Amino acid sequence: MHGDDMIKYIVALDQGTTSSRCIIFNQLGEIISSHQMEHNQIYPEAGWVEHDALEIWNRTEDVIRAAMGKGGLRADDIAAIGITNQRETTLVWDKNTGIPYYNAIVWQDTRTDKICNELSADGGQDRFRSKTGLPLATYFSGPKIKWLLENVAGLKEAAQKGDAIFGNMDTWLIWKLTNAHITDVTNASRTMLMNLETLSWDNEILEIMGIPKSMLPQIRPSSDPAFYGHTSKDGPFNGVIPVCADLGDQQAAMVGQVCFEPGEAKNTYGTGCFMLLNTGTEIVQSKHGLLTTVCYQFGKQKAVYALEGSVAITGALVQWLRDSMRLINTASDVENLARMVEDNGGMYFVPAFSGLFAPYWRSEARGLVIGMTRFITRGHFARAALEATAYQTREVVDAMANDSGVNLKTLKVDGGMSVNELLMQMQSDVLGVPVVRPKVHESTALGAAYAAGLAVGYWQNTDELRQKWSIDKTWKPSTDDTLRVKNFAMWKKAVTRSFDWLE
């Protein structure tokens, strides 16, 4: 593959919640080679979730070398690098030694609930929403930084001296690759510290949370022709390549799904489910429990915004059936098991394992199974688990329509669970609109690659990207509306039963 100077490729680094991947794309947006490795999930206490950032960097180095090796590629073959990441996962490290002060605190972690309650005592859960687009919730990075400053010995002093710096995982990887302390507008919009209009850190919020500004990375466009920096000869690429794109994973999937027009939406089925709706250059504040977030910013163009609905537990529910309940051996078994029964048998599964995210934001809710009778089998468990994903997505779609006045025409889907054809048909039935899956399921990595390619002129513009995008399969709603009407009403009733479980 080596030797032709004209042929270049784009590298996407996708640092996710459970694994890190390196995927290399060609000009057509096809995957040339890839490699993926999991990292440990650390649960020190109930509700706490951590990652070892040094382990994640080691895994990242390993997947880069493996993907480059599989493709027979050297640094000169790569035009640019784009990064996409699990969002909100919060790390503080020493800028002189590169050693983290503490494990990364993962987005799912709920240890900051006390901090969030204290902050919302003055001004309520929406205290910072008009500036940040976010409710006060344990999900976001700001309260996690505050927790670290208050609980890690010596950290506050180090931060005041300017030695301790903060980053989400994108910032950590960019720093390890280029030594630049940088994030992009999409990741910055998830910290609860950035003003959506000015796209800069908000001094008032920083003061309220007690976070020194010197800790924070510089905010740059998601696709930046000025480059964040270059890889070094002694790094995992063994050569100098521009690092010039950075998007939080869900925003990257929007770019990968070419959702460049207002009203276009995608849903990513991963550990959780994340649905985004492009609202153009307009900031739409949600009145129905959604988040307002930056969708992307390309170079000097205006930032594009999105409404987002986050569901905490979807694919994680299938993992739970596999690992904790041993109902299935592999995640893909859930589809066959669910097909063994005609319907859910009257059983509903509300997976509020770490509270409920959009549109409820109830951190005190807990998971429940309801409607069980002696008739219920393993098959009903599997089916109810899949239905829970479809219903939670429907609740987000309804909230988006109410906030934006835009009705969804089709839903573009990606992520691990989008290969589950039964779920995709259920999703179409529950929504009453077609569900479309693209040929490249790896929309997140593809979006990071697209953004990097745009920065270096590898692709000319978004129109060219739209032409490269192609459909794999479409599901249309069936004529039977039971799932959409009767069962959805029952689901909503089940959800209310999960509220107020913890005092």
Topology (SSEs and partners):
Blueprint (H helix, E strand, L loop, with lengths): L8 E7 L3 E7 L5 E8 L11 E2 L1 H19 L6 E8 L5 E4 L9 E2 L7 H8 L8 H4 L8 H11 L3 H7 L2 E4 L1 H10 L3 E3 H4 L5 E2 L4 E2 L1 H7 L8 E3 L8 E2 L11 E7 H8 L8 E5 L3 E8 L10 E6 L7 E8 L3 H9 L9 H7 L8 E3 L17 E3 L7 H27 L6 E4 L6 H11 L3 E4 L4 H13 L6 H7 L2 E5 L7 H15 L6
Parallel strand pairs: 1-5, 5-14, 9-12, 15-21, 21-22
Antiparallel strand pairs: 1-2, 2-3, 4-7, 6-8, 10-11, 13-14, 15-16, 16-18, 17-18, 19-20, 22-23
> What is the approximate shape?
globular
Strand content: 15-25%
Q: What is the number of beta strands?
A: 23
Poorly predicted runs are none
Fraction of residues in helix: 25-40%
Structural class, by secondary structure, is alpha+beta
What average pLDDT do the residues reach?
Answer: 93
Distance between the termini: 62 Å
Sheet with most strands? 7 strands, mixed
Strand line-up in the sheet with most strands: 17-18-16-15-21-22-23
What integer value in Å does the Rg equal?
Answer: 22 Å
Number of helices: 16
What would you note in describing this structure?
The structure is a single chain. The model has no long low-confidence stretch (mean pLDDT 93). The longest helix has 27 residues, at 378-404. With 503 residues, the protein is an alpha+beta fold. It has helices at residues 53-71, 113-120, 129-132, 141-151, 155-161, 169-178, 185-188, 203-209, 249-256, 315-323, 333-339, 378-404, 421-431, 443-455, 462-468, 483-497, and strands at residues 9-15, 19-25, 31-38, 50-51, 78-85, 91-94, 104-105, 164-167, 182-184, 194-195, 200-201, 218-220, 229-230, 242-248, 265-269, 273-280, 291-296, 304-311, 348-350, 368-370, 411-414, 435-438, 471-475. The chain has 16 helices and 23 strands. It has a seven-stranded mixed β-sheet. Helices cover 33% and strands 21% of the residues.
